[in-house]
Every structure is written in structure tokens, then in C-alpha cells.
Write a structure and sequence with these properties.
By secondary structure, the protein is of the alpha/beta class. It is built from 6 helices and 12 strands. Strand 1 (8-13), helix 1 (18-32) and strand 2 form a beta-alpha-beta unit. Bound molecules: zinc ion. Zinc ion is lined by residues 14-15, 18, 147, 150.
Length: 298
Amino acid sequence: MTDLPGRRLLLVHAHPDDESINNGATMAKYAAEGAQVTLVTCTLGEEGEVIPPGLAHLAADRDDTLGAHRLGELAAAMKELGVTDHRILGGPGRYRDSGMMGAPQNDRPGCFWQADVDEAAAHLVEVIREVRPQVLVTYDDNGGYGHPDHIQAHRVAMRAAELAAEAAFRRDLGDPYDIAKIYWNCVPLSVVEDGFARLREAGREGEMFRGVASPSDVPGVVPDEDVTAEVDTTAHAGRKAAAMKAHATQIAVDGPFFALSNELGQPLFAREYYRLVRGRSGAPAGERETDLFAGVDA
Ligand SMILES: [Zn+2]
């Protein structure tokens, strides 16, 4: 364990592209600073809608080869972010994308929503005990916006953090390890509102995008006072945009804006925000942390 870098960050996401949209700039920043950045993606996003017409045949209702294609997009995105350690929970294809909440795919055996939480968490315990991250980043208990795979990623990440620390749990998966700090992704409401105001002023509607999304389409929006950490990642916003572009089947990027398959424009946030839910804040009382590793022994 002596050869591990001093600072180690683990991120748990549902589908390829979620990491770049939520944490791309944070990942690029810490990787550039020499921290170990590990991404665990829980599914291959097989049920995603495909934006480029030329790739429409990859979709689940046609060739059903989108998962393999998105693995390639993820690898390209990680190259843009300078992240070398990215893994699929349980290995590629272990858990399938469950589709949007209420879709018939939610009930399909083998989908992530149907996974036993403890069993899925054991795969992550093995990663936690190997990488020994001081900081874990995942979604809130609604998965940011209610997608079953995002909710399940939250449950699995939180459960794995608990089990990894339990001395009696599966010693074959490594020595017990307690993660010092856990954060949930979030975006302060005022930042979301400003972003949409900029987007409307820019008048990209009808040009690049079919319309403008609404602030409620943004995952993880919280009242400003609930945000506990604000990482100045503006220097890495270009890398974040490049990583998002690498997920070309899922995201169309236009300068400081982007759209998903609904073609509704939304702001691309250059700064990234977090809510500390476990561990002690490294900032003075009432202030936001500016570093996820604040107060952590590195
Ligand atoms: Zn997702």
C-alpha cells in the first residue's frame, strides 16, 4: 500500500457520460495534480437513446450494441480527463442499464435495478479496499433525478462504503478500509438559474438546440445553503467539455452549453459542487470547502 499516491478519489456513476457531466472538471483537476482518480461505472448505458443518426442502429431496439460502443466513448473521455483508472462494476456486462423509471426494462433480470444491493456492493468493496480512497463521490438518495440506475448507484456506493470498513466482512476482498469523506453531487439553484439565463440570452434555440431545458431537468439541484463544497475547476472546463463530446451518442456540446437526446439546451457548468454527507468539513464553520481533500491525511 506504500506505493499508492497520497490523495485518492473514487467516483461511482450509473452510466458512461454521467462522470463527465457531473464531475469531469473535478476529475481532470485532481488527476492533473497527481491524485489517484478511480471511476467505477455501474452499467454500460445500453438503453440510452442515440443522437447521431448514423449510429442509430446501435440502440437497444435495433442492434443492441450500444454498450460496447459506449465503453469506447468512456475510454476516450477518460483520456481527455487524464484519468487512467476506470472500471465497470463487476466487469463489463455484469449489470445492464435499467432504462428510465417505469420502463419495462426495469423488470428485466440482470438489470442494475434488479441487482441485490449487497451483492453489487461487494464488487465495489473490493475496489475500495484496493484503492483506499479518502474521498468518495456519488449521487444523493434520489440519484439526482430519479433514474433507477442512479438511485441504485447511490445505494450500492453507500452500502459498499459501510461494508468496506467492516472488519468481519469478506476478508478475501482485502483489508478493511474506512473512507474519510463522502460527497453527493449537487448544483446550487442560483447557479442553475444563472446558467439558464445565459443560455436564453445566447439565443441558441432553434439553431443548435430544439429548445431550452428547464432547471428541473438538471440533476441534483439544491438550495444554495445545502452546498458544502465548491471546487474551482474553471481551468479544467475545456477538458470537461472535450470529455462530454467524447460521449457523442449521448451528448451534443455547443460552447458552454450542451443537450442530451431530447435536444433541449442546458448550461455546462465549469465549476462543480458537492454536499458532504459523511466526515468532517475541512472549512471554517459556515464556509464552503474548496478542496474535497480538505482536512484529510494524505
Ligand atoms: Zn446516467
